Amino acid sequence: MDMTEPQTWTVIGVFAAMMLGGMTLMTTQFSRVIRAEVGGLRSEMLGELGGFRGELNGFRGEVNGRLDVIESRLTRVESKVDDLDTELTNLATRFWKSQ
Hints:
Elements: H1 5-98
């Protein structure tokens, strides 16, 4: 099949236009797929982050409760040590003043 020079250039132009159009279409579709996947990943990560925050808040409450118990115990120990210090001071005063 013999083609003239203008026909050859027309075929080359049509082929180039088809290739560029196909690449544009594939790039657009790929961009949409990537955008959808990133959106899904973002939603999943936000859900996991919300769950983690809930667990962390629960743990924080538990630790605060335990620290309150420890603080009350230390307050009682401090009170007992103060009482012992007072009694020891009284005993020392009586012992050394009596000599």
